């Protein structure tokens, strides 16, 4: 394994499959054995949130299992960065009637309405706080990719017509990023949406780290990388190991 990079990590997305606890621990052991030093854990509904127990599904780990897994990773030299989506990819939260008021669309439950930023910040700040309390990493990944419903609801459509869709994204996301900074953590964000509007990155908290995920496309697939990097933000790369198109 090339160790010239300070951080060599693996992103585990538990959206579709939740490994049994023993398999999850075995995966951590294998990752460490391959020379990795970071796991990005997108727990989704497998995390047992105390303040919002409705989010966890029947495959969720117990609090004791989470604590045991994180302790094991620490012994293995693996930094565990929790990933909590807070804009798109939150079907597993918005499907519950308790959180229905946050939906951007009643037909597609994937995205939070940025016009409901006050309510959303209250929810996700609580989830961020629980994750920060359990994970020692100085980073907290807050997602932000593929928010394709921007401007869908009437209120957001009107704002987008006045100020542009990028304004919807930045106004909402800089509030959520600021909530992470208040916890003493650095927000990590997927970069695909801001690559379309690199000028907007200047408004985000300077603590933010942007991650370009790429499954084998041209390097400027989402937007001009050079323009975003020219803003002086910290930037990580995230190649696809196996996805679409299938490649390495």
Helix content: 25-40%
Number of helices: 8
Which strand order does the major sheet show?
4-5-6-7
Mean pLDDT rating:
91
What is the rounded Rg? 18 Å
Specify the structural class. alpha/beta
State the total count of DSSP E strands.
7
Succession of helices and strands: EHEHEHHEHHEHEHE
> In percent, how much strand structure appears in the residues?
5-15%
Q: What can be said about the biggest beta sheet? A: 4 strands, parallel
**What is the global morphology?**
globular
Measured between the Cα atoms of the first and last residue, the distance is 15 Å
- Which residues sit in consecutive blocks of at least 5 with pLDDT less than 50? none
Descriptive notes:
- With 248 residues, the protein is of the alpha/beta class.
- 35% of the residues lie in helices and 14% in strands.
- The chain is built from eight helices and seven strands; from the N terminus they run βαβαβααβααβαβαβ.
- The strands form two sheets. It has a four-stranded parallel β-sheet with strand order 4-5-6-7.
- The two termini are 15 Å apart.
């Amino acid at each position: 394994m090339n160790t010239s990079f300070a951080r060599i990590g693996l992103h585990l997305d538990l959206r579709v499959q939740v490994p049994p606890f023993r398999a999850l621990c075995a995966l951590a052991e294998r990752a460490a054995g391959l020379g990795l030093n970071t796991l990005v854990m997108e727990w989704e509904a497998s995390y047992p949130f105390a303040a919002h127990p409705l989010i966890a599904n029947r495959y969720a780990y117990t609090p004791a299992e989470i604590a045991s897994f994180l302790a094991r990773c620490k012994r293995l030299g693996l930094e565990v960065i929790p990933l909590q989506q807070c804009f798109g990819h939150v079907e597993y939260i918005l499907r519950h009637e308790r959180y229905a008021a946050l939906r951007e669309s009643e037909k597609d439950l994937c995205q939070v309405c940025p016009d409901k930023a006050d309510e959303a910040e209250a929810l996700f700040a609580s989830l961020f706080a629980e994750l920060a309390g359990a994970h020692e990493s100085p980073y907290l990944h807050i997602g932000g990719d593929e928010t394709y419903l921007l401007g869908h609801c009437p209120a957001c459509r009107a704002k987008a017509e006045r100020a542009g869709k990028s304004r919807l994204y930045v106004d909402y996301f800089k509030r959520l990023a600021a909530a992470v900074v208040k916890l003493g953590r650095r927000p990590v964000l997927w970069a695909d949406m801001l690559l379309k509007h690199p000028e907007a990155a200047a408004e985000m908290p300077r603590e933010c780290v942007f991650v370009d995920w790429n499954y084998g496309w041209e390097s400027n697939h989402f937007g001009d990388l050079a323009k975003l990097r020219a803003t002086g933000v910290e930037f990580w790369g995230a190649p696809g190991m196996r996805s679409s198109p299938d490649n390495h």
